[in-house]
Amino acid sequence: MSSSIIGGTVVGHYAHWRYLTRSLHRSPSSSLHSRSFRLYGVAWGFVYLGVLSALTLAQRRTTATTK
Fold first, then answer.
1. Rounded distance between C-alpha atoms, residue 19 and residue 28, angstroms
2. What gap in Å lies between CA 5 and CA 11, rounded to an integer?
3. Greater model confidence, 34 or 31
4. Confidence grade of residue 2 (pLDDT, cut at 50, 70, 90)
5. What is the average pLDDT score of the chain?
6. What integer pLDDT is reported at residue 30 of this predicted model?
7. How far apart are CA 40 and CA 29, in angstroms?
8. What is the model's pLDDT at position 28?
9. Nearest CA to 60 among 1, 10, 9?
10. Which residues 6+ apart lie within 8 Å of 25 measured at CB?
11. Where are the domains of the chain?
12. What pTM does this model have?
């Protein structure tokens, strides 16, 4: 069950990212801040993967102890 939730979340985030990249047009002022936005995006990605990993490991431990 959790793998379907995680898979759905990943697909939803990817679809949202594709929507944003197609619908938003860059202005010259936004390109000045692209490096910081890239850094924040990578940092958010690591936090997101860390939370997903922690949830997955916690569920595996719970499942292993109940069997």
1. 20
2. 10
3. 34
4. low
5. 79
6. 62
7. 17
8. 57
9. 1
10. none
11. 2-66
12. 0.48
Q: Which two tokens stand for residue 38?
A: 């890239």
Instruction: Return the amino acid letter for 7.
Output: G
How far apart (Å, rounded) are the C-alpha atoms in residues 2 and 8? 10
* pLDDT score, position 1: 53
Amino acid, res. 48: Y
Instruction: Note whether 51 and 5 are within 8 A (CB).
Output: no
Residue 47 tokens, joined: 């936090």
Determine if residue 26 is left, alpha or beta; phi over 0 gives left, psi from -120 to 50 gives alpha, anything else beta: beta
3-class secondary structure for the chain? Answer: CHHHHHHHHHHHHHHHHHHHHHHCCCCHHHHHCHHHHHHHHHHHHHHHHHHHHHHHHHHHHHHHHHC
Measured CA to CA in angstroms, residue 34 lies from 17, 29, 44, 48 at distances of: 16, 9, 15, 20
Structure tokens at 33: 């801040």
